[in-house]
């Protein structure tokens, strides 16, 4: 087993479209200070353990004070009104596509926010959607995921073909090798109580032909009774993203991410061993009380007794999930959104950042009420929600 110190330093990462970009910086350990991170090799797997953020207490990367672009304000009419937005994605030509699930549409805009056109709408025909979920870019084309199928559209928004997809797929991710990877729940356990069904990573080609599975994740926790099936208190969920031909997996049980190749072989694990995840009884109680006292529709004064009994019977976890979402940016940096319970929402989010070498850099504060959907080299794309619950797909400057 080989061990070496990891000393993150300033790196110039050439980016063909936007020029040079500095994507990692830190302090060099002194003789008296403990190392910021240690990398060791275990059976051919690189393990990077970080003990302190390289940036210290000050964030080196920051998001601008105002959005660069707001698609709800860059034009008028129905095309600039949004509801239940899933994705906000930058296209290779500089345009932006928005998955507006409320109208089952994919809307395309120019880099300046002018509406170009839309595809989709409710239906079962070619290019229509019954339960629109996601857009994944394949070069300058788009894969649009519905529940049971995937539609491929060209850069001109023309429907090319429809591919079948396992109905248990939770997401879809493209690898540069041309493969598609989908985490799929193959079987739901017939159990009551706290259950966690594993997800198999199925591979497909761009014609829709299914290949062998290339691994599995732990899946998501659910609490199941005769009256209720849903997320438990501080339920853990597996997350996945891709970069090039690499797949990044996390179960959220720990502040840890596993990097695997297109064959499912683990190449690297990076983690923060002592990241605090312990829950207090007060935090668990606040989360349970929120479930017992939700906003109710007009005319309803209380929850049905079986629902109350189910919520009161939910286990009290001792630890929280480490994170709720993961995004890998074009430089290979991995961003993790720390988990917050429903009773802990409010205020700006602070995403943890691991550099391309696997070391913990620090945290970046996001604008308040912004749901981050994509992180670029110098921009953040997401959905900001106003006090009136109006959704605004936006682009914000990211300064590294």
The residue fraction in helices comes out at under 10%
The computed structural class is mainly beta
Shape: globular
Low-confidence stretches: 1-30
Kindly report the average pLDDT value.
89
Spell out the blueprint of helices and strands.
Elements: E1 3-6, E2 12-15, E3 19-22, E4 37-42, E5 45-50, E6 62-70, E7 85-90, E8 96-100, E9 105-109, E10 115-120, E11 134-138, E12 141-145, E13 149-153, E14 159-164, E15 173-174, E16 180-184, E17 193-204, E18 210-224, E19 229-230, E20 239-243, E21 246-250, E22 256-260, E23 266-271, H1 281-292, H2 305-312, E24 323-328, E25 334-338, E26 350-354, E27 360-365, E28 370-375, E29 379-385, E30 391-399
Parallel strand pairs: 5-23
Antiparallel strand pairs: 1-4, 2-3, 4-5, 6-30, 7-8, 8-9, 9-10, 11-12, 12-13, 13-14, 15-16, 16-17, 17-18, 18-19, 20-21, 21-22, 22-23, 24-25, 25-26, 26-27, 28-29, 29-30
Give structural attributes.
400 residues; mainly beta; 30 strands; 7-stranded mixed beta sheet; 5-stranded antiparallel beta sheet; disordered N terminus; 2 helices; 5% helix
């Amino acid at each position: 087993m080989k061990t070496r110190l990891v000393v993150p330093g300033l790196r110039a990462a050439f980016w063909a479209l936007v020029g040079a970009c500095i994507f990692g910086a830190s302090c060099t350990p002194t003789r008296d200070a403990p190392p910021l991170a240690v990398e060791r090799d275990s059976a051919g797997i690189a393990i990077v353990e970080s003990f302190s953020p390289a940036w210290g207490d000050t964030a080196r990367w920051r998001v601008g004070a105002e959005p660069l672009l707001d698609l709800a304000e860059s034009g008028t009419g129905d095309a600039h009104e949004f509801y239940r937005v899933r994705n906000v994605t930058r296209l290779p030509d500089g345009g932006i596509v928005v998955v507006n699930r409320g109208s089952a549409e994919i809307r395309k805009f120019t880099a300046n926010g002018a509406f170009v056109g839309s595809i989709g709408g409710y239906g079962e025909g070619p290019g229509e959607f019954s339960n629109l979920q996601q857009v994944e870019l394949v070069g300058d084309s788009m894969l649009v995921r519905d529940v049971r199928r995937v539609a491929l559209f060209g850069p001109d928004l023309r429907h090319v073909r429809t591919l079948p997809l396992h109905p248990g797929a939770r997401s879809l991710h493209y690898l540069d090798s041309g493969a598609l990877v989908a985490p799929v729940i193959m079987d739901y356990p017939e159990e009551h109580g706290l259950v966690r069904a594993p997800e198999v990573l199925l591979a497909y080609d761009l014609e829709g032909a299914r290949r062998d599975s290339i691994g599995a994740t732990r899946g998501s926790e659910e609490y199941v009774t005769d009256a209720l099936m849903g997320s438990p208190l501080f339920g853990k969920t597996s997350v996945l993203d891709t970069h090039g031909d690499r797949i990044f997996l996390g179960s959220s049980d720990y502040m840890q991410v596993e990097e695997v190749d297109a064959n499912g072989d683990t190449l690297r694990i990076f983690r923060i061993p002592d990241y605090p995840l312990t829950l207090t009884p007060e935090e668990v109680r606040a989360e349970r009380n929120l479930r017992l006292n939700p906003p109710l529709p007009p005319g309803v004064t209380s929850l049905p007794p079986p629902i109350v009994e189910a919520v009161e019977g939910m286990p009290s976890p001792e630890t929280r999930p480490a994170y709720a979402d993961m995004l890998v940016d074009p430089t290979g940096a991995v961003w993790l959104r720390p988990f917050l319970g429903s009773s802990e929402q409010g205020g700006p989010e602070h995403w943890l950042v691991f550099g391309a070498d696997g070391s913990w850099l620090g945290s970046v504060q996001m604008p308040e009420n912004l749901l981050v959907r994509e992180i670029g080299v110098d921009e953040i794309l997401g959905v900001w929600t106003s006090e009136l619950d109006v959704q605004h797909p936006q682009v914000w400057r990211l300064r590294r």
